[in-house]
Amino acid sequence: MGTPNWSNQTMWTGDNLPIMRGMNTASVDLIYLDPPFNSKHDYSAPIGSKAAGAAFKDTWDLSDVDLAWLLDFEKNHPDIVKIINATLVDSDKAYLIYMAPRLLEMRRILKSTGSIYLHCDPTMSHYLKLLMDAVFGRKNFRNEIVWCYTGPGNAKRWFPRKHDVILSYSKEDAWTFNVDSVRIPYNKLSYQHKHESNTGIGGKLTPDNMSRYLDAGKIPEDYWLEDRDKMSPVGRLLRERIGYPTQKPLALLDRIIKASSNEGDMILDPFCGCATACVSAHNHNRQWAGIDISSKAYTLVQERIETGGGMFYSLNQRFDIPARTDLGRLPRYNCKENKQKLYGEQDGNCNGCREHFKSVNLTVDHIIARKVGGTDHISNLQLLCGHCNSVKGSFGMEYLLWKLGSGSSHPYYKPGFPHYPSSGYVVEEEQRQVVESH
Ligand SMILES: C[S@@+](CC[C@H](N)C(=O)[O-])C[C@H]1O[C@@H](n2cnc3c(N)ncnc32)[C@H](O)[C@@H]1O
Ligand SMILES: [Zn+2]
Questions:
Q1: pLDDT in tens, 249-278
Q2: 348, 300: one domain
Q3: Which of 60, 166, 300, 301 fits as disulfide partner to 94, beta carbons 3.0 to 4.6 Å?
């Protein structure tokens, strides 16, 4: 298993995709994510609240995402393309194209015993479950948890929508699950009934054993209730509320973290908002890291931990992309050995247009640019001909494939798409200078 290439209690400000690309493989024990839900709302915290200034957009269209990802999925993850094609409207497609590469990275950085909990709501949960099946494997599906709550609403033509959905998957077939740490009391009637009828696990029990068994409590079902489980939406939890839109209750994160991790484990929340998962991890002696595109997250977690009495901690704020340390000492990316090996692997063809060239006419190129988390490892290198190299220019490989592969006839292409350069893409030349200067 890998080890994290970042310190405990790190909070990144930035887009989580390049940051996760820079994280070591198999280095995280538990991931909780509560991404934008495609709710068609834009959120901002009330002026005057501690979270004022925090805002995020949750409306999607195809111009928001790198459509060229699709070409990468077509080549490497055909199941994901099937799921994206199953959506009926562009905003849902766009949302899944945005989520898919991030979920793939999350799978890579999870340890083999790790688990992931994806918090969403019925707007997209049906599509996200398909996407999770495609990324994590259907056999690794563990639970669809329904978090039920009440609250004001003015639905008159349908039943008020008052639940969220949390999809949990393990990475493989042996995973951490501390069932005894999250038991809850039996309800009165069931306790009494079991006591009187003396039916415990394994048949009849002595009165003493029966009492012990009942006192230990039961494993909560996959529906979590506001009153029984003390998981009110944060709007009503005055003690916790800091005004961050979509803030989640600590009790909900406490249950997930206690069940699916052990003390000392590394927990990651890549869409951490006001960092509820990080605060819960901190309170339960886990290591943690959070990422949020808004810089508010950093100030909020700092305040939350300090007010919670977390005196002995040092919070690291980072803006950079971590450099992976699990790839060994890498040779210069364009060294002769890499070139020869790639030439053999690609049968002497350019990786863009597929034309056959002499080795001297092909240049070594990064598939994912270094500035967005791509490494010098040979798995992230390829040979391109001069033409393809110049078409790709400042953009990602997805852009080149899109340009070469489909142009305006791509099924999702509409005038004005895609909008390049998108955040994170850098001029390849710039990258090379970075490499040169090292
Ligand atoms: C639903 S909120 C998370 C709320 C959080 N669970 C809490 O309890 O406060 C989603 C968060 O994702 C962040 N976000 C959106 N896109 C992101 C991206 N690409 N990378 C990192 N964070 C992102 C938003 O700024 C927002 O804070
Ligand atoms: Zn070419």
A1: 999 999 999 999 999 999 999 999 989 999
A2: no
A3: 60
